[in-house]
Amino acid sequence: MKPVAIFRHVRSEGPGYFATVLTRRSIPHRLVAVDADEPVPRSARAFSGLVLMGGPMSANDALPWIAPVLALIQDAVRHDLPVLGHCLGAQLMAKALGAEVRPARVKELGWGEVSVSDNALAREWFGARPGFTAFHWHGETFSLPPGATRILENAYCENQAFVLGKHVGLQCHVEMTPELVRSWCHAGRAEIEAARASPAVQSAEEMQDLLEMRVTQLNAVAERVYARWLEGLVGD
């Protein structure tokens, strides 16, 4: 099988639990370190699927790698290679697929509830659970791409996740590990303090309370989503 390409846009936002799932299933994968100036491939057909991680930048920024990544997402969709986006990754997907990326009404930083949308596609991806506690770290959001279906939502962000065929964009973070949460809390203390007026922002201490339990519960959700997405991988 061709490898799954995982695009990292900043060193602190790696694949986390997604890499654990791939390793357990012996699925080959390749990290594309955009943050280390690794060039973005021109074609998606060297891979079985594309995964885009998060980052503090905007999909609307004039960064040299943004346009090539958008073109690569479009190439993958044209050739029916599944794409999976986390936070910034989902925003890049939305923009590549014709939607708008814009500032969110409020910042979401920390643990917060999301609801599974009331439609058949949402239940296909998340099962019978009505919702779950996800991890959030975003100040922007996206509209739904044409033809996409909303599968997650909450009080602060209408579009927490969408599905379009094999392709899934997640505004919230399901890939978290305890190590990732701790490192983001450490590196992001200034951002947390600056955004404390938002009702959807927790302190670093609150984010790390009951951390192992919260991450274990989130891993169970991620396991189902990732397993469903992996079914769409394109073989050799």
Task: Describe it.
The chain has 236 residues and is α/β, with parallel strands linked by helices. It has a single domain (4-230), classed as Rossmann fold (3-Layer(aba) Sandwich). Helices cover 33% and strands 25% of the residues. It has eight helices and nine strands. The protein has a nine-stranded mixed β-sheet with strand order 2-1-3-4-9-8-7-5-6. Helix 2 links the parallel strand 3 and strand 4. The radius of gyration is 16 Å and the shape is globular. The relative contact order is 0.17.
Strand and helix map with partners:
Blueprint: E1 4-8, H1 17-24, E2 29-33, E3 49-52, H2 66-78, E4 83-86, H3 88-96, E5 101-116, H4 120-126, E6 131-142, E7 149-153, E8 161-164, E9 167-170, H5 178-187, H6 189-194, H7 204-208, H8 211-230
Parallel strand pairs: 1-2, 1-3, 3-4, 4-9
Antiparallel strand pairs: 5-6, 5-7, 7-8, 8-9
Features:
236 residues, alpha/beta, Rossmann fold, nine-stranded mixed β-sheet, 8 helices
CATH homologous superfamily grouping: Class I glutamine amidotransferase (GATase) domain
Which class do the helix and strand fractions yield?
alpha/beta
Q: Please summarize the sheet with the most strands.
A: 9 strands, mixed
CATH class: Alpha Beta
- CATH topological fold name: Rossmann fold
Report the mean per-residue pLDDT as an integer. 97
CATH architecture: 3-Layer(aba) Sandwich
Task: Output the strand order for the largest sheet.
Answer: 2-1-3-4-9-8-7-5-6
- By DSSP, the count of extended strands is 9
- What is the share of helical residues? 25-40%
Order of helices and strands: EHEEHEHEHEEEEHHHH
Taken as a percent bin, the fraction of beta residues is 25-35%
